[in-house]
Amino acid sequence: MSTVKIKNNRRSLVTLPAIKGTSFGPVGLKPGVNEVSEEYIEALSTKKGIDDVFDPKKGGYLELVDKGEPLIAPDAKVTLAGMNVPDSIVMIESCTDVAQLDQWNKMDTRKGVHDAIAKRAAELAKRAEEDAATTSGGVGPGADQQ
User: Fold this and answer.
1) Could you give phi then psi for residue 143, rounded to 5 degrees?
2) Burial class (CB in 10 A: 0-12, 13-18, 19+), 70
3) CA separation for the pair 35, 12 (Å, rounded)
4) d(Cα 11, Cα 14) in Å, to the nearest integer?
5) pLDDT at res. 118
6) Residue 76 near residue 31 (C-beta atoms within 8 A)
7) 139-146 long-range contacts, Cβ below 8 Å, gap at least 24?
8) Do the Cβ atoms of 67 and 5 come closer than 8 Å?
9) Between 140 and 111, where is the model more confident?
10) DSSP assignments along 15-68, one per residue
């Protein structure tokens, strides 16, 4: 699947909509450069008004770019405040920092957000265990030794 790079010039998450009649979206874009499937962008381009978010003369905050990396501005706090639950879940599902998840869990009161954080934390813990088992070469507690 080919991808295109889209730069989010805002200092917060931008969520692009789901496309009716397809399996595309919603797509969360972190500040900085994000990779998005070319097929999704083609489908997105048919939505009314979407061109404005790519047009800086009309207040657009997204741009197609050739290179770059995802970036969270160091002076910008990543927060779920002001996001609806579905947008918050997109952000949570893309988070790889357990400390960030813990901070969101302490600061947010919404059940849907708490459930998504618990699920993501469990996924990250499981992945960490699998990585530890892989890097230790199967040696350690519970490993078969001859």
Assistant:
1) -85, 145
2) middle
3) 16
4) 9
5) 95
6) yes
7) none
8) yes
9) 111
10) EEPP-TTSS---EEE-SEEEEEEHHHHHHHTTSTTGGGGG-GGGT--EEEESS-
Under the phi-then-psi rule, with left for phi > 0, alpha for psi from -120 to 50, and beta for the rest, what region is 69?
Answer: beta
Residue-wise pLDDT tens digits, 61-120: 888 887 655 444 333 356 787 788 888 888 888 888 888 888 888 888 899 999 999 999
With residues binned 3-state (H G I as helix, E B as strand, rest as coil), the percentages for the chain, rounded to 5, are 40, 15, 45
d(CA 94, CA 2): 20
Encoded tokens for 104: 């969101």
Dihedral, CA atoms, 84, 89, 95, 100, nearest 10 degrees? 60
CB 11 within 8 A of CB 44: no
